[in-house]
Amino acid sequence: MFTADFLKEVNQHSGEKVQLCFQCFKCSLGCPVSFAMDYLPHQLLRMVQMGLKDRVLHSHTIWVCAACETCTTRCPNHIDIARVIDTLRQMAIKQGKPAEKPIVAFHKAFLNSVRRHGKLNEWELMAEYKLRSTRFLDDLWLIPEMWKRKKLFLRIRGVHKKSEIKKIFKKAKAWNN
Ligand code: SF4
Ligand code: SF4
């Protein structure tokens, strides 16, 4: 189904000009996780241009993207594709259309930990993710390895200027409302 204002909406929230994409394919050629996507990055942008809102917001691609920004640095038209995809994720959550529920659970747990402390706390992330996803036994074998690599801290350490983090989340919330 075609949605007339979709391109405008995505441009407005991402601050990018998706219509500039001329389908050169450079973004998709550099994407390290394209093998797991249902639509390649350049196809996703084409679908945004065509106003295929439902298909884009239901896609697995927007959740598979690792936000590595390789595509962004390769685009000859300077489209920040990673930013566009992040915008699409937020739109999918807002409209209740996320295709990957466990990834959405991880996404929310990650953001909540950063919101609280200004940085990530891995214990907290794991606990909230498991509660949200109800995948209690998945990936438990990773804990000893994370501990060995000093990725797990018993004490929650935050950043100094938490007020700055609050401002960022406040701004994001204003957009979401
Ligand atoms: S930011 Fe996402 S879409 Fe772009 S190259 Fe990285 S994983 Fe692929
Ligand atoms: S690199 Fe840029 S212009 Fe080329 S297909 Fe990707 S988004 Fe479009």
UniProtKB/TrEMBL annotation:
Q: Which GO terms describe its cellular component?
A: plasma membrane
For this protein, the record's Gene3D superfamilies field holds:
Alpha-helical ferredoxin (1.10.1060.10)
Coiled-coil residue windows: none
Signal sequence region? none
Give the 4Fe-4S ferredoxin-type domain ranges.
Answer: 18-79
Q: What keywords are annotated for this sequence in UniProt?
A: 4Fe-4S, Iron, Iron-sulfur, Metal-binding, Oxidoreductase
For molecular function, the Gene Ontology terms on record are: 4 iron, 4 sulfur cluster binding; metal ion binding; oxidoreductase activity
For this protein, the record's PANTHER family field holds: IRON-SULFUR-BINDING OXIDOREDUCTASE FADF-RELATED, IRON-SULFUR-BINDING OXIDOREDUCTASE FADF-RELATED-RELATED
Name the record gives this protein: Heterodisulfide reductase, subunit C
Give the organism the record lists: Desulfofervidus auxilii
Provide the gene name from the record: hdrC
